[in-house]
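Database export, one record per block. Field names are fixed; values are copied verbatim from the stored entry.
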Amino acid sequence: MKKFMDRDFLLKSDYAKHLFHDYAEKMPIVDYHCHISPKEIYEDRKFDNIAQVWLGGDHYKWRQMRSNGIDEYYITGDASDYEKFINYAKTLEKAIGNPLYHWSHLELQRFFDCDKVLSEKTAKEIWDLCNEKLQSDDMSVRNLIRKSNVKLLCTTDDPIDDLKWHKLIREDDSFDVQVLPAWRPDKATNIGKEDFNEYIDELSKVAEMPIENFEDLKKALNKRLDFFEENGCSVSDHGLDYVVYAPASNEEVEAIFAKRRNGESISALEEDQYKTALLTFLAEEYKKRNWVMQLHYGCLRNNNTPMFEKLGPDTGYDSISNYAPAIQLVGFLDNIETKSGLPKTILYSLNPADDELIGTVIGCFQNSDAIGKIQHGSAWWFNDNKSGMEKQMTSLANLGLLGNFVGMLTDSRSFLSYPRHEYFRRIMSNLIGQWVEDGEFPADDELLEPIVKGISYNNAVRYFDFDLKEE
């Protein structure tokens, strides 16, 4: 029987151990998609206790606590931080097979030198140990990032953001980790949302120009694209229900925009026609600027109406959607390829049933513009677990070139999430190591070292054209 989460955790063969410990483990981290706060990085926040850094905003943990029958008072309510921590510990006892069990204990080991198993019985001891360590300056936000060997991270930022905190971080010579903005124009895309007109008014103010029609909107967004580019941005991200393709004439799109700006409702088709036009325009701009376009789709959001009304979005009430029409995905990509050529593009579906679909679609649009120009993104959200990662990488290996994969991202709001990269690298090393052990790939380090180091770090450095050196 193997010891729980020892040095060789998840590594089942000697060759897997070699690949991880000699190559993957030592590589730095590029976290090219996350949701952490640049303000907290600049201010170098320190946390009062483990619950603040662990449970604040973490809807992964909230979902499991609800599954354990914990009252909302102890999850997002007014209970003390200690009460919330105890209730998470009670929940974790039952989380066998869940990635939270592994992530939580990796975080305890890596950041707090704590190899104890968290349970209701040990919670008070671990609470005291972690909180004592959190008082040290070594446990500030910046030092947590440094401790994790992060070289660069991209936050998620709206086009109207003034990027104040990114500028201040860049001007601060005492912090050598690059913190770059990533462009997330969902509010400009979601024309059917109630706050769309209010948002366009805000965009108009920030862009310092009137937005009276769709052409004006594109000009305003272009001004903001310029501003983001001046501040180091080269990555975009879109959260979509599905990738739409409903072409319409310029006149039809202008009419849809005018209708919505006048406060009228629009049909589902009109919404898709607007989104198609706007996303096509943005993709063409990304191509001109050599930006990467990330498309996250396949999520069914805010499914519990009473709880959405009480807590708002991103609180643990989303699920996988099984509606992502391939004909629209391909139509969208083909239209852009025909008009301007696709930018570097990463496709993520929340539905693991789409893995093989994505694997075949990306092969239709690869070319010599970039190595692995169209990527099958890392197993995302509900899929960033052991079986989900193995499935995504196996599918990519079967249908594409796993060796060009840009690897893992945290997609997290927590500064303790970086061990997820270690978790991924262990799973990746074990998967590749098993293929070697089974005689499916030669035990040749001249071939395998660049593959493992590439997936861990170097491929992302090259693909995103970040100002970093490959290692």
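Remark 1: The mean pLDDT is 97.
Remark 2: The chain is about 50% helix and 10% strand.
End of record.
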